[in-house]
Amino acid sequence: MTEVREISREALLRRGFALEYATLGWNVVGIVVLAVAAVSARSVALAGFGLDSLIEIGASTVVIWGLSGTGQARQKAALRLIGVGFGLLALYLLVQSTLVLVTGFHPHHSPSASAGRR
Question: pTM here?
């Protein structure tokens, strides 16, 4: 019975690593696309979404780190790191959205959105 549990645990760990690496790859591609769109449109919303993807990259890295070892302390540290990342994102969005509201800034259309209107 112990052998079955160990095999299942190892298979689940392999699956977990595979899913996290796939998530990591997807978010890396997404952040490149979002960075180009945010800069070209000068959009705080797109930049915030890109930063969210950056935090998800960090979270995936932390999860991979957490899966690599065992112990409650490592899991607690991993969750704390992810929480700090999302807290920093919230702070960034608060500051940027306040600046946008105070200055009355309006984002530009991205080149891809303008191309569709021709």
Answer: 0.61
Note whether residue 39 is domain-resident: yes
- Per the structure, the complete domain to which residue 96 belongs is given by 2-105
Q: 50: number of CA atoms within 13 Å, CB side?
A: 16
For 61-105, how does the pLDDT look when each residue is reduced to its tens digit (9 = 90+)? 888 887 887 677 877 887 888 888 888 888 988 988 898 889 887
How many domains does the chain fold into? 1
Separation CA 24–CA 67 (nearest Å): 14
Alpha carbon 112 to its chain centroid, in Å, reads: 24
* 117 within a domain of the structure (yes/no): no
Q: Report yes or no on 80 lying in a domain.
A: yes
Question: In the block, which residue shows the tokens 């569709």?
Answer: 116
Structure tokens at 63: 């999860």
